[in-house]
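Regression test case RT-17, inverse folding.

Input:
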């Protein structure tokens, strides 16, 4: 029962976080040390057979995770980053994470990928040599001290999915990746401190002063780390604070930071600041469809429809399959009185995303303005079918029903729109309900 329960829990872990795929390898490592269940090839084969269901689940989860990232275009093809560069990046990340665990200064929510990774450059070559040296130091005394090899092996195994061999997007590393891998080095560090503390007792008259000094150092370390923790937490107090921190750290390296902060500014009503950030993102990454689209939306909200259309034209050129870009450009055409062009863009948005309820709702508005009432009602009805709590669609359809003399149906729609907190629906219900 416990075996199948552990398998079920592993499945749940995979569904919540793909990094759990390393569990089968970790279990085999634990079988070797400290459990001591593997001491021969026969033992290893038996342990592997026992873990086979876990391995199968890991393989499926790994394939699914990579496929999902690849479908979103996040996986960097092998041809773009050579295998040697990936090895160099992996060794650099392994050492960098260790350094940040020991000296957690200048942490960032986002670390941009390096512009260039040269296998033979001094920093990467040094990281590679240092990784090899640490590995050798842990493996050479393996017969006498298995713990070091097990802890270092655990660190590398659990870090493997995110160490840099598989390149995903513009992120090279993230502090959160070390939550599980950090247990190995932390265990060794704790054991080293305990060993030094016990050894200090053999120093006779120097033992007590050394222990007091060590205790003071420990207290200072705890206070310092607590201060750094509180300081780092403040970075995450809001979306604007978080991405402002990243922008200050990497002002010309992370266009996504400007884009995300711009969206946060837009949600808080700071449209001018949002537009500045979207412009900065577009300058840093002219090929970003999102930057141009959001800049176009911001310009449209400010009433600068001609400029908004130009930006959305560029967004569509960069990403022809973006139904959202067509939706937003249609809105600018609508405001400019170019209803035929707006209708064409809404048609295209629906063609690209048949379940795009907002496109149906907006097209209903245009069709109603053009006097094509039956088609408009059909679009509103489709929008409501796709999103039953779409208040604006109820209000819009109710208005058309009222115009065509279908008062009872109109009042039902106004009532539903009002229930969904539509000011237009409540106003219409108060106006027409009294007649």
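Golden output:
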């Amino acid at each position: 029962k416990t075996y199948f329960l552990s398998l079920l829990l592993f499945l749940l872990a995979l569904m919540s976080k793909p990094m759990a795929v390393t569990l089968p390898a970790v279990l085999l490592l634990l079988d070797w040390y400290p459990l001591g269940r593997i001491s021969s090839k026969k033992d290893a084969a038996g342990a592997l057979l026992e873990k086979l269901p876990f391995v199968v689940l890991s393989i499926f989860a790994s394939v699914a995770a990579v496929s999902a990232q690849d479908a979103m275009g996040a996986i960097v093809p092998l041809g773009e980053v050579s295998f040697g560069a990936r090895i160099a990046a992996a060794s650099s990340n392994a050492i960098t994470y260790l350094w940040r665990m020991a000296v957690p200064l200048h942490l960032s929510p986002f670390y941009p990928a390096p512009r260039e990774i040269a296998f033979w450059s001094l920093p990467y070559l040094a990281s590679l040599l240092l990784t090899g040296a640490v590995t050798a130091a842990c493996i050479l005394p393996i017969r006498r001290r298995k713990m070091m090899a097990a802890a270092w092996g655990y660190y590398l195994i659990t870090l493997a999915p995110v160490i840099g061999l598989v390149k995903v997007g513009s992120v090279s590393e993230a502090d959160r990746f070390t939550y599980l891998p950090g247990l190995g080095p932390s265990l060794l560090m704790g054991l080293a401190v305990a060993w030094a503390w016990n050894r200090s007792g053999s120093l006779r008259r120097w033992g007590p002063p050394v222990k007091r000094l060590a205790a003071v150092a420990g207290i200072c370390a705890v206070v310092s780390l607590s201060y750094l923790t509180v300081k780092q937490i403040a970075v995450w107090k809001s979306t604007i604070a978080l991405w402002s921190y990243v922008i200050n750290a990497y002002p010309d390296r992370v266009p996504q930071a400007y884009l995300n902060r711009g969206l946060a500014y837009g949600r808080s009503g700071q449209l001018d600041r949002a537009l500045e950030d979207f412009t900065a993102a577009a300058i840093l990454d002219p090929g970003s469809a999102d930057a141009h689209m959001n800049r176009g939306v911001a310009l449209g909200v400010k009433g600068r429809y001609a400029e908004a259309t130009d930006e959305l034209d560029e967004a569509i050129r960069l990403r022809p399959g973006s139904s959202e870009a067509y939706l937003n450009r249609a809105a600018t055409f609508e405001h400019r009185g170019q209803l035929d062009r707006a209708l064409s863009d809404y048609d295209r948005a629906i063609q690209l995303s048949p379940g795009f309820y907002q496109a149906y709702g907006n097209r209903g508005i245009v069709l109603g303005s053009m006097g094509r009432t039956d088609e408009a009602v059909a679009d509103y009805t489709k929008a409501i079918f796709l999103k039953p709590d779409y208040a604006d669609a109820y209000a819009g359809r109710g208005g058309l029903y009222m115009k065509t003399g279908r008062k009872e149906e109109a009042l039902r729609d106004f009532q539903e729109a009002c229930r969904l907190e539509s000011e237009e629906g409540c106003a219409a219900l108060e106006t027409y309900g009294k007649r």
